[in-house]
Write a structure and sequence with these properties.
The protein is mainly beta. It contains no helices and nine strands. The protein has one domain: Rieske [2Fe-2S] iron-sulphur domain (Rieske Iron-sulfur Protein), CATH 2.102.10.10. It is 0% helix and 44% strand.
């Protein structure tokens, strides 16, 4: 069974922006990159930097603290780089997240 949870209104995340939401007790950074939505752990696995404030290069976010890179696309992200990825979709004006899809720190 799919497990999608509403975390924000679509209007809260305009193109080119990122927000932090809570999902299953974890802080998650959600990005709107040219109209496509992506989500990953908010806290960088290196030292906890705020990934929603990172520089975007395509679908990769660069941590603002020390420059580690994270591909946000769960289809192409490496399986074990320490950051969790989430599936994101829009439904009835809500941003929905699905339980982590790429456990990468195990
Ligand atoms: S805290 Fe993100 S690279 Fe160091």
């Amino acid at each position: 069974m799919e497990d999608w949870s509403p975390v924000a209104r679509a209007e809260d995340l305009p193109v080119g922006r990122a927000i932090v939401v809570q999902h299953e007790g974890e802080a998650v950074a959600v990005f709107n990159i040219e109209g496509r939505l992506f989500a990953c752990s908010e806290h960088c696995p290196h030292a906890g930097g705020p990934l929603h404030l990172g520089l975007l290069r395509g679908t990769t976010v660069v941590c603002p603290w020390h420059g580690w890179n994270f591909d946000l696309d769960p289809a192409t992200a490496p399986p074990r780089d320490g950051a969790l990825r989430y599936l994101v979709r829009l439904q009835d004006g809500q941003i929905l997240l699905r339980t982590k899809v790429a456990p990468s720190s195990e």
